[in-house]
Amino acid sequence: MHKFFLIILILLCITCSPNKQKDTFGDKKMVTCYAWLSGPGNASDMDLKESFDDLKLKGIDGLMFNGGQDPATYSRVGKIAKKAGLEFHTWIPTMRQGNNPALKKEWYAVNGLGESAYDKPAYVDYYQFLCPSHEEVYLFLETMYGKVADVPEVDGIHLDYIRFPDVILAEGLWEKYGLVMDREYPQFDYCYCDLCVGNFKKISGIDIKAVEDPSRIEEWKQFRYDLITNLVNRLAENVHSKGKLINAAVFPGPNSVAKKIVRQEWDKWNLDAFYPMNYNDFYLKGTDWIGEVCREAVTALENKKPVYSGLFICPNPERKTDEPDPENHGLTPEELEPAIRASIENGAAGICLFTPRRMTEAHWKAFDKAIRTDYSKR
Length: 378
Ligand SMILES: [Zn+2]
What we know:
Elements: H1 2-16, H2 18-22, E1 32-38, H3 45-58, E2 62-66, H4 71-83, E3 87-93, H5 135-149, E4 156-160, H6 174-177, H7 194-204, H8 218-241, E5 245-250, H9 258-262, E6 273-276, H10 287-300, E7 308-312, H11 333-345, E8 350-354, H12 361-371
Parallel strand pairs: 1-2, 1-8, 2-3, 3-4, 4-5, 5-6, 7-8
């Protein structure tokens, strides 16, 4: 009899031990998590290793890493990321390209007032966007991304700024720039270079420069969606031919926001995954809206491609309400779980943090709990 109780006691001890608890269902990571991260700056290999090991431990599965255009940087950083067990995608802007001897001024996009984004960019001085009609622009991008895709440590190419400049800014940014963007204005509307105008005339018969309100011409909108779509799909073919993945950071939608404000018809892009920047505060929305745009995204893609819901993190949550700059808004620790839940319950395959460096200790605590929740069972 005593022996029997002893066995029961031993069994109870095994069941209740903390190590055993770790392996139980409730503690398992349920949500796939990526993170946008820039660097490496002056970080040593050891610094990078420490930072990547820490992110992996916290539940990050892969990085969208922004480190310029030199393949050697991605080889070095990628090696360390892979050793930490992280997927490694290279996050490099596409249409937005600063001054570069390889890029001619005449390849930059031109607005409705005839001003070039090269020397008179919209909104901010770094808004130097290229024009997608120029074959030389495509070739520059193909070569640049191709060299990065050839790096063995690189799992995928992550496109960003794969669009026209915002013809309408997200409403949360109007005050910052002193604008009321109730319609499309010519100084923010691209591209009216001779090549775009001429090519559009050839296919539609319309001289868009003679039209009083170009925003009412549906074919002109479609023409520009297609310019970006064709460029993306050519890049995708090239990157896929190298056996690598290709994905992109896109605006929410595509219909509710992305097409309207940056001319991204991204449900027509042959990419392996989509990372919509569901930055609710920029649109003066709450976390429920994140769920709505995730649902819209997976529906537009007919559930055929994974959608990772991009979440914008508030770096100083206690100051959020007094903070005038929307760049310092974002999800507080209290909002992070509802944002992750809304994303996954509405079909997202996971989430992507912008950025882990903005996460406070309270954010990580909320994050840890959320990523171990099985939202499919609720
Ligand atoms: Zn153009």
